[in-house]
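Milestone M4 deliverable, item 7.
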Amino acid sequence: MNVPRNQTSPMGIAIRQRVRANVLLIGCGPHAKRIYLQALAASEWASLKAVVELESKRPQTMATIGKMFNGVEFVFTQQSGNRSDLPEELRHELALIVHRGQINSVIVATEPLSHMSYALWAQSCGLHVLIDKPISTYEDVATPPAQAAKLMADYELLSARRDPAKAFIVNTQRRYHPGFQYVFEEVTAVAREYGVPVTAMQSTHSDGQWRLPAEIVTQDYHPYNSGYGKVSHSGYHILDVMSNFIDRSFSASGKSFDEVGAFAAFITPEGLIHQQNRKDHLAIFGERYGQLNPLTDDELKLRYTGYGEVDASALITLFNSRTPVSNLTVNLLHNSFSRRNWLHPGKDLYKGNGRVKHEYHSIQQGPFQNIQIHSYQAHDKHDGEQPADHREIGGNNHFDVHVFRNAGVLGGEPLRTLSSGDFHFTPAGGGTGLMIEQVKHQVVHEFVSIVRGERAPDTSESDLATHRLSVQLMSLTYQAGATRRELRCAR
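Output delivered:
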């Protein structure tokens, strides 16, 4: 049954008649292969029409797509890195493909240095956009503060050019996770009834990216050698979780803040040499390590000049009329517990190199409530059927929520504990048995539903308009880390 043409969203935007989502995928790296291709192949209402990838990835890209889809066009380009605009020749080629394939939507899954150029191009063509996080980043963003300030300028530019009739979704999948949604609702309910927002929050995310010293120089996937690192990688997800708790709780409580401050410190690859030097690596791997990496520690330190952050820690403070009203602490770690014990890196640097996720959030609402989220994996093998203990601590789908309540005021029990099995979740189809990856498929499912006209663009869980504070926190963290002093900006 078609949606009536006069149906509108909360912002008054008309919901269109249903159409098919004809998708242009820009970037076909490990994440796109694992998530976007699987989700599109499983969708009844989406068609992959074309793929854009670097010329250097031509053979593997064509082989991957050929196994899953028919009739897909390809564009291979030399372009990478920051550009304010796409080359005219590439724009012309993309325009022809959009016309031939009747393309109405684009998924931007390149490395983040290219996000802005493709997003602006897609907006100029009137296409629906689903973009990977972060919205943008820059080479050397972790060093000169001026580079980090560009992040907010990028956000403002995309917002100004936004067509309200088109989707612009940032893929931050925790917003779609039923466990996080439950905690969002619990925090919002207490804020609304008792007038107290989030008064303190601590978040930690680590993902066991053990990279050996010479690999840091040569690897370009989730790199450090371009002057950015963890904050621009998975770090944005955690800053986005924080911003959601802040925005929702302050709005519901009727309270406000007018300024955000941050102090941050980064551990760079040079710091790793002080933690584990050449002698230490030789003791672990033997002489094979010396053959693979002939560089001395001093030579590596010189190579590492200007590299991005491996680990980042930040204290973020919210102010009202220059009075601090809430403190938030965040620890973002690549150099953390890993299952890698081999010398040569795995072929899949996304999931196949010993990567293990540990995630923790503690949300305080004054004397009324503390909610803790715990998610700890012990294994790096996530494909195939999940083991029987996959929801237990250390399991691939471990996700526990502990709700501590002032029962004398709020009522109910003083402690309630839930696990991943307690949250209602309907898989969108495709992918592995990992709950977080099924949630990523939900993002694609929502995107397709907006393209088809089943719902209005501004009803997305992760609409561009809701990412202002997330980008602000990312920009401030980088600026503070570069200057090693507290920086503030207006709300």
